[in-house]
Amino acid sequence: MTTTRIPAVPITGLYGALVKKFADKMFGRVPESLGVMWHHLPALKASMAYGQKLQKWDECDETLKTYAHMTVASLIGCSWCLDFNYFMSRDKGLDEEKARQVPNWRAATVFSPLERQVMEYAEAASMTPPEVTDEMVAPLLAALGPAGLLELTSVIGFANLTTRSNVALGIESEGFASACGMKPLAERPADRAAVGSPA
Predict the structure, then answer these.
(1) Which pLDDT does position 185 carry in this prediction?
(2) Which GO MF term does the entry hold, naming one (predicted)?
């Protein structure tokens, strides 16, 4: 159980029962973060709806999108999103051992050139102000096409919304990966500040 800046409240009502049933089926329990977001149902529903829509898009490879989201989570310091995406990597058929290296992608040797370009782009787009360059975008546009690059960018934007919101609210990892017997996710690199501050 984490200590959030806004206390969680009981999830009630018919919609609440459906949400708890879905969460319990997916995670084996109801995440505390749902109780935090329950204070503002329109905000919770909007975030969930957009996240579900993103999952249905298929112009960009699922692996690349997951690595991009995990890169943003690692950069911003959102342990909840990092742990959740690592947990979901099993359902998405990703290489779990490879996914564990995303927080250390600059030093890791397991990623393809395209995967590294995607993670570099995710970091650059998450800086304030963004540090994306024409030279950075050109190979991605060639590899993914306009629709694929737009989809990837939308995923990165949504990742920034969720990661920054979670960090601001004090929502931290709830141990999804360990709950299903997966090894702990790789630690964020100590020299994360070397790539720039996301603030």
Answers:
(1) 64
(2) peroxiredoxin activity
Both structure tokens of 151: 């989809």
Domains of the chain, by residue range, sit at: 11-56, 59-180
pLDDT at 97: 84
Rounded CA-CA distance 159/84 in Å is: 12
> Model confidence over 30-86: pLDDT tens digits?
999 999 999 999 999 999 999 999 999 999 999 999 999 999 999 999 999 988 888
Structure tokens of 66?
Answer: 């997951």
Q: 74 and 119 in contact (C-beta within 8 Å)?
A: no
Residue at 68: amino acid letter: A
* C-beta of residue 33 within 8 angstroms of C-beta of residue 47: no
- Please report the pLDDT score of residue 178 as a whole number: 65
CA atoms within 13 A on the CB side of 159: 32
Give the position of tokens 């898009």. 57
Task: Return all residues near 163 (Cβ < 8 A) that are at least 6 apart.
Answer: 72, 73, 76, 77, 78, 81
Cα–Cα distance between 153 and 151 in angstroms, integer? 5
pLDDT of residue 184: 55
Greatest CA separation found in the chain? 52
- Asked: is 59-180 a CATH 3.40.50.170 domain? The reply is no
Which single residue is written with the structure tokens 């500040």? 193
